[in-house]
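Can anyone check this?
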Amino acid sequence: MSERCWLALVDAAPSGADAAAALRTPDGAPAGWLAAWIRASKPVRDARRADPRIVDQDGAPATISLVLPERDALTIFDDPAVQGARRAVLADAEPADLVTTLLVDASHFAGSLTARRGPDALSRLRDDPFLRVWAGRLLVVDAGLLGSVPAPPGPVIERHGSDVPWPGGGFPAPGQ
């Protein structure tokens, strides 16, 4: 099994994470920590898989939309609402700094993380297409966790294999 990226919202600074940053609400109240682990196995119970390209220990602070539906309420990636959100992400004239869907298995949409930077980040995230699929939270993440990932080429919305978070980076190399 190849290395995977796992993200989890945790209460305190985690030991052993490859990257982590404190979270705040837009009005400044503490909201826990967002942590990332790069490894084959799931590090904590509530971790979800993400596109590993989002992790950057030198990443600047960002405002994020974090959608984390309950495990018993997940929908499939082929659901029209999820497909519509992915299409809307691709149609955005001002792409986010990064977008990743979150996985718990090969077929279910288990959430998303969208990050923006700049003075209008919060107002732009209020219209995150994935917030139309499930309710989420708008948060501010400190430096040291999230980088920038170029917008995926459109109009393709299919994942590169059912076990890869969208937008993914491509098909795995032979033997992986």
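Reply from J.R.: I decoded it. The mean pLDDT is 89.
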